[in-house]
Automatic annotation (TrEMBL):
This is Filamentous hemagglutinin N-terminal domain-containing protein. Transmembrane segments: none annotated. Keywords: Signal. Residues 1-26 form the signal peptide. Residues 30-142 form the Filamentous haemagglutinin FhaB/tRNA nuclease CdiA-like TPS domain. It comes from the Bacteria. InterPro entries: FhaB/CdiA-like_TPS, Pectin_lyas_fold, Pectin_lyase_fold/virulence. Pfam families: TPS.
Length: 183
């Protein structure tokens, strides 16, 4: 009888921990590694992403965590003349994206997280340009600049150029798509 009660109690605590951890995972948290920090303002289920460091028509964002719950929206509120939104996740968590990712105008959106990215069955995009997600360590530019997710402490001048490549480390995370895709 006591063993049954302990097992039942353990099951309930485990279920609560799982429910709590899924809530905690779905967060967009900026870091402070850019000259002008990314700002995230939450309004209901929408995370409004602003700020960041602008160099020419490129807008750089840096996050400690970037995950989005089912029904949530990550809204990059960029100026209409931004051509590239270049984002990195420098923390230690995989990105779980199961909501809407959107941006203004025709901006291309780059998102790198070397720990991995999971696109859930409810993940959607509303972006006027291209979307590139990768588990690369950095995005490389023709002027030699690297926008690194594994060494984000470097506050150097960011690049005005268009990215030319991705630099993978020795053990990149996986990208997983759980939805059926657009029909």
């Amino acid at each position: 009888m006591n063993l049954y009660k302990i097992s039942f109690c353990f099951f309930n605590i485990s279920a609560l921990c799982c429910m709590f951890s899924s809530t905690v995972i779905a967060q967009i948290i900026p870091d402070t590694t850019l000259p002008i920090d990314t700002q995230v303002a939450n309004q209901g289920s929408t995370s409004n992403i602003s700020g960041g460091t602008r160099v020419g028509n490129n807008l750089f964002h840096s996050f400690e965590q970037f995950s989005l719950a089912t029904g949530g929206t990550a809204y990059f509120d960029n100026d209409i003349n931004i051509e590239n939104i270049i984002s990195r996740v420098a923390g230690s968590s995989i990105s779980n994206i199961d909501g809407l990712v959107k941006a203004n105008g025709t901006a291309n959106l780059f998102l790198i997280n070397p720990r991995g990215i999971i696109f859930g069955s409810n993940a959607r995009l509303d972006i006027g340009g291209s979307f590139v997600s990768s588990t690369a360590n950095s995005i490389n530019f023709p002027d030699g600049f690297r926008f690194s997710a594994t060494n984000p402490e470097i506050k150097s001048l960011l690049s005005i150029n268009v990215p030319i490549g991705l630099q993978y480390g020795s053990n990149p995370g996986a990208i997983q798509v759980e939805g059926k895709g657009h029909k």
